[in-house]
Structure formats: structure tokens, C-alpha cells
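We close this part of the discussion by returning to an individual protein. The amino acid sequence and the C-alpha cells for this protein are reproduced below:
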Amino acid sequence: MGEAADGGGHRLRARGWPDAPGVLLPRRADEGERVHHDGGTPRARGIPAARPRRPHATDACPARPRPGLRRAHGRVAGRTRLHRRADCRTACEEHRLERARRRRGPRGTAAIVPGRRPRQIEIRTATEAELSAFDAVPHYVFASSPEDVRTYAMMPSPLPAECRLGVFIDGKVTTTYEWIPWQVRLNGRPTSIPGVTAVGTYPQFRRRGHLRMLMARAMEVHRERGEPMVMLWASMGAIYQRFGYGRGSEYVTYHVDPRFVALREPFTWDGEVRLIDQSSAADRAVAERVHEEWAAPRNLVPMRDAARWAHQWWEAQRQGHYVAVAEDATGRARGVMVYKSKENQIPNEPGPDQQMEVRDFFVLDLDARRALWQYVRAHDLVLRARFGGVEPDDPLPDLLLEPRELRRATGDAMWVRIIDVPRALEARPYSAAGTLTLRVHDDFAPWNDGFWRFETDGDQSRVTPAEGAAADLDLSVNALASLLTGFRSATRIERAGMLSGDAAAVRRADAIFATAYAPHMPEGF
């Protein structure tokens, strides 16, 4: 190799290593025989030549530790490191990552462990025989109690097997994804927007790319089914934003002491508020009609079919809810409130000692809203009333003498994923006519990524590819979800740095995408 035997450390110096006299290196694949400090070869000294070693990915690293180094007198130095770690940290880290990539295989595949049979990974729907094992995954992931599990088993109208997609390793389910195939009011228009639920992975199977593979397959399934969007309640927003989900609505709650939330103006109700008989089909029909009329113009509110109503009534009876209906002077129902109360008595403490939980509050006019609010205040023994799932644009704060007594709190509610950009944009009615060219970025669904020309007369819309055109608005698919649902205006999204475009186009988008009501999800799923 043209390297002189200079008495010690000669090959190390040639490779840029510090002097190391009396050291013998193992033979490299591209080298001749080993050379001792005195210049002799093992063969000349009667020592058989070592077997050629297979090249390794880390051989190119000049600073990697050399196993089996020997000094001239034959004592084993073991894995003596002849360099400082800081001198080769970068090179060694690169080779460590390369070794990890070789063990793991391509992204999204299971690790290959020497001596272990490769596992078979499937992404498919569950069979009827697998539903029990399938349900066990979200029960574990979300820490369901034994009582929760028993309740779930009794729930009417369970999801069909074709709405349950999972990752199966050697035939055993490890990651789950389910959806409710319902219709949702999108700015008043019925649209197929499935409610995704029960997304989870057993902890021992996490960090392997299984959820990413499952989400990618779910996107394809929803696209094949012609569903333009999906939505979910997120356990953590960080999980779903990386898959292209954007915020779609807000969750609002009130925590009030009814004694201190008087109406600003006096009000007299000519009708009455009555408790309905939940076992009566006629009474149930009254409440259902109010809900349907209330939901018709709303935004992002699910439509309740017979199966959904069966679930709602079952849940109300199981939880011990009351259903109060506000009827006007003609006897026509104008509002519905679903709630329950419980005693929370503190010994030796005077005054109210009950808590009220209001689950649903649907009204068709302002008088019905005031009537039901006065009904809540008439519960003299209620110390605290909690209203969950309040409409984000609820006018109640403007009706009170002391609005801050509502103790209004907010959080994220729906996270929306656009499956198919053209179908999603064509699904809803708009508040103004106009034309926009959109540059949409979507790394997870390449069929969405690109330029789109959007035209609408307010009622009907048309979306076509527009490659090569100048974009009026440039935004991610996450931001488009917030814009499409009416959760955020284009101006608000631009201020957050999630959209770019000229000022006129942004104002035009504000007018087009405005909604009659704020997006609102009153149900858990």
C-alpha cells in the first residue's frame, strides 16, 4: 500500500490518528497483511494470516473504536478508544444513524431484528369476530373504567365492522381508527363528514410509524367513499396537525351560580316550561322536532338519524337526565334543555347545595332562551350550574346584567381534515360570489397539493386544477380547513402566518367564506 514500516503507529498516522507506538491494527479489506512494530509480517513470523473481514458501513469512519487491537507483546487492549469522542462525534453519529436505518428498514416498516421472524403487518377492516379485541385497544388507550366498558357494550347501534380500520400484526390488532358515517350541516347544507373516533395504539407498538400508515390508508378509504372531509375530537392537537388536520370549531362552557346571573331587562313568558316523559314517543317527537329545526341553518352540527336519536335517548335515561321543553302560548315547543342535578351537601354549611349539569340547550328564538334561563334560575337549591357545549356565538352574555358571572371558558373542539380539496370546496354554500386561485400545500395527501381555481355564485361552486396560474392565496391544507368551516377568517389566518396573499384577495376570501353561524359541535363521539 506504499506505507513504510517506521516502527510503530505508521498506519494510524496515515489515517490521521494520533501516534500510537506498539499498536497493531486488524487487517482492513483493502490492505495487505498485518505489520508489526518491527516491520515483520505475521506470515514471516510463523503466524497464519487472519481471515479477511467483511467491509462494514462504519469502516469509513477514521475515529470509530477498533475491537481486538493488540499491543506488540500480545496483550489485548479490547475496545480501547484511541481518539477523543469530540473529535469524531459527527462522523460516528452519521454511522450510528446509518446502522439504525439498516436495522429498521424503510420508514413505516417494522424493525428487522436478527434472529427474529419478520412480522406480518396488515391494515384492514376488522371482522365481526375481531370486534371485541378491536374495542379493547381504545378502552386501554383512553383508560376506560370497567363500568365504562360495560356501558359501551350495552350501547345501541354500535359502529359496523366496515367503519373500523386497524393495524394488525401477525393477526392481532394494535392500532385502531373508527368513524361515524353521518351527515353534518356545513353552513346549513347536509354534507358527508364522518366523525373519526377511537384512534389509539397500544404503548408497546408506538414509535414505529403504524399510526402514520393507518392514517394514510384511512385517507384513501374516505376518498374512495366520496367523503370530502372528516373531523374528530383530538386527545392532543399535536398528534393530528402533522396529518393535515386544522382547527374547525371551539368548545365553550359556562360555570355559573344561578343567583347572580339575572337578565338585564325584565321578561315575562306567556308559555310554560314542562318536563317531558322520555318513555312517550309523542313527547320524544316534540324534542326531536325542535332539534331538527334548530340544527337546519347551523354549521358543523351533525344531523340525527333514527340510530343517533336512539343513542341520545338511551344516554339521557342512563345518565338520569331530565328534558325540559319551553312551549309558547299556543303550545308549540320553542326550546329544549337536557340536564341533571345532584346533591353536593356540605355538613353544617347553610344555603344551596346542588349542582346542575346542562348537556343540551337548543332554542328557536330569543324568548325561549330567556324562558329556559329563568327556569334554571328558579332552581333555588342549585349552587353551581355547568353548561357544556355552548354555542360559540351564544348571545346570552349580552342579555345579562353581569356577564362575567358566566365564567366563560373555551377550548378546541373539532379538528377537521380535508380529504379531497375540490369536493370539500364544492360542498357548502357561501356568503358571496367570487373567484379565487388557491395554492394548497398538502404533504400527506399528494392529490390535494397544487393550484386550484375556485369559483362560486354563493349557492353552487366549481373547483378545477390551475397549475401554472398565479395564486391569490397560498396556504396549508390545515389552514384551509379552518377557513372552509368558518372557524377563522382569511384575515385571522394571515395574521397567524398561515396564509399569504394580496390584501384584496384576503378581503374577498373573508366575504366568501363567512358563515351564518359559528361552527359548533354539541355532541361527544
User: Anything to note?
Assistant: Residues 89-104 form the longest helix (16 residues). The chain is about 25% helix and 25% strand. The domain at 420-513 is CATH 3.30.1050.10 (Nonspecific Lipid-transfer Protein; Chain A).
